[in-house]
Structure formats: structure tokens, C-alpha cells
Amino acid sequence: MASVVPVKEKKLMDVKLGELPSWILMRDFTPKGIAGAFQRGYYRYYNKYVNVKKGGVAGISMVLAAYVLFNYCRCYKELKHERLRKYH
């Protein structure tokens, strides 16, 4: 017999497309819940890429790439105007 797991306890990858709206509505969107989600994400990233026996530059380089991409998106409006100027 297969055990039935409630929708609330399923991971996102295990949720079927029809169950997605009810799964999203069951999430905790309070400030404490959002902070907990960020904390779980941080610890998951840290334990997977940084806190390993034979670590490399992959963990730090992903953070650096995300930082560069975030700043590029934030400054795109100014960079777009710089690109279209003529220097003559």
C-alpha cells in the first residue's frame, strides 16, 4: 500500500500541477515563515557547497555570479543609456 502524503507536507518537486494553487496557499507567508525559508535555503546551500571535505571555488563563485547578475539587473537602466551614446 502506498502511503498518502498530505499536500502541505509535500516538496515542491513532488506537487502535481493541479495541486499547486492549494500547495502555495498552505505556505507560511508571515515574516517568521519567510525568514525560516531563507534560513533553510542558506543552510542547505552552505552544507552542499561550502561545508564539504574537498571543497572548491564552486560555492563562492555561485554567490559572486549571483551578486554580479543582481547588480547588472539593478543598474540596467543606466547601462542601457550609456550603451546608446555616441562618443564622437
TrEMBL record:
According to the UniProt entry, its GO molecular function terms are: proton-transporting ATP synthase activity, rotational mechanism
- Segments crossing the lipid bilayer: 55-73
Q: Which InterPro entries match?
A: F1F0-ATPsyn_F_prd (IPR019344)
Q: Which GO terms describe its biological process?
A: proton motive force-driven mitochondrial ATP synthesis
Location of this chain's protein in the cell: Mitochondrion inner membrane
| Keyword annotations | Acetylation, ATP synthesis, CF(0), Hydrogen ion transport, Ion transport, Membrane, Mitochondrion, Mitochondrion inner membrane, Phosphoprotein, Transmembrane, Transmembrane helix, Transport
Family to which this protein belongs: Belongs to the ATPase F chain family.
Name listed for the protein in its UniProt record: ATP synthase F(0) complex subunit f, mitochondrial
Taxonomic source organism: Neomonachus schauinslandi
Per the record, the gene is LOC110576725
